[in-house]
Design goal:
Length: 297
């Protein structure tokens, strides 16, 4: 049953004064699609997207102690229009490192020119003078982290940071070796890789990052384009009087405290449900059942 204890608490990005609630919102589901081209063009349902934005806006204007954050890759709909005027305490995170081909493909965009253009596009689209956090997404493989040096593009991003266009730098789709390489070039505040109940490759990495005070913000926390489905998850949810997705999010929040969640949804009902997940406490014996889904029990 959803209770009164808020597990979301907060996390302060290292080397910053940005103390964030651990539950944010990933805005990618608001983008449209065109046939096989996913995350492409305006929202499928503009009204639903606007209602979701309005709910975020209302929620984020409610008094709270910690800052809310929004994950917003630059190809998504115009967040400036949807969310402005931005609440003072909203932290917006964007990413650079890829551009879209006409066929919808994701093309590496790591040159000095690509990165500089991407930062200025983000600033213009969001109507900001400085970006709170920018993730550099490694593209040696689009599907999963793959080795390769990220020194050159990161050095460009660090220069843009020194010019005052970027406050903090994060990394996405990266290996431990790339994170170590990056930390010699610039302070890294967060890492975003694929991780959820069923996809546990980064278990050890998350613990290492927790020790170093670096946030880990899983993408596809609910399974992404193929949302999580598991008889165990459904059974646990029924026992706890919650929904499967609330359990999947609460499980993440009961993992190391450097995990921040950014569930994505285009549905107002799902948004409300997801925001409530931090009130769900999962007993230890039930956590063990959930751990078994990813084969780590
Ligand atoms: N760095 C990267 O390479 C990268 C890659 C992918 C994503 N991301 C980031 O990660 C964020 C989250 O990822 P995501 O949105 O792709 O995947 P996700 O959060 O794992 O899952 C989204 C899917 O779950 C469904 N869903 C959400 N809440 C639900 C609920 N309460 N009940 C039932 N279904 C629910 C959504 O459908 P409905 O719309 O119907 O709710 C949607 O199909 C994105 O916004 C993006 O910012 C980053």
């Amino acid at each position: 049953m959803i209770g009164q204890i808020d597990l979301a608490r907060h996390f302060t990005l290292s080397g910053s004064a940005m103390t964030l609630s651990r539950v944010g919102y990933g805005a990618m589901q608001l983008a449209g699609r065109d046939g096989d081209k996913l995350v492409w063009g305006p929202p499928r349902d503009i009204d639903a997207a606007n209602r979701s934005s309005a709910t975020c806006r209302r929620k984020w204007r409610e008094p709270h102690r910690y800052r809310r954050f929004l994950w917003s890759p630059c190809q998504e709909p115009d967040h400036k229009k949807a969310l402005s005027p931005y609440p003072d305490d909203l932290v917006i995170v964007t990413k650079v490192g890829a551009r879209r081909g006409e066929d919808g493909s994701w093309i590496p965009a790591f040159s000095r020119g690509d990165l500089t253009t991407a930062i200025h596009d983000n600033l213009r689209n969001l109507g900001l003078d400085v970006l709170d956090v920018v993730n550099l997404r490694s593209m040696f493989s689009i599907h999963e982290p793959a080795e390769g040096s990220i020194e050159a593009p990161l050095a460009v991003l660090a220069e843009l940071q020194q010019k005052g266009l970027v406050r903090h730098i994060g990394l996405s789709n990266v290996t431990p070796a790339q994170i170590a390489e990056a930390r010699h070039i610039a302070p890294i505040v967060c890492v975003q890789n694929h991780y959820n109940l069923a996809h546990r490759t980064d278990d050890a990495l998350i613990a290492d990052l927790a020790r170093d005070g670096i946030a880990y913000v899983p993408f596809f926390p609910l399974g992404g384009f193929t949302p999580l489905q598991s008889a165990t998850l459904s059974d646990v949810a029924a026992r706890l009087g919650a929904t499967p997705m609330q359990v999947a999010l609460a499980w993440l929040l009961q993992r190391p405290p450097n995990i921040l969640v950014i569930p994505g949804t285009s549905s107002i009902e799902h948004l409300r449900e997801n925001l409530q997940s931090s009130m769900l406490q999962i007993p230890p014996e039930v956590i063990a059942d959930l751990d078994a889904i990813g084969g780590s029990a």
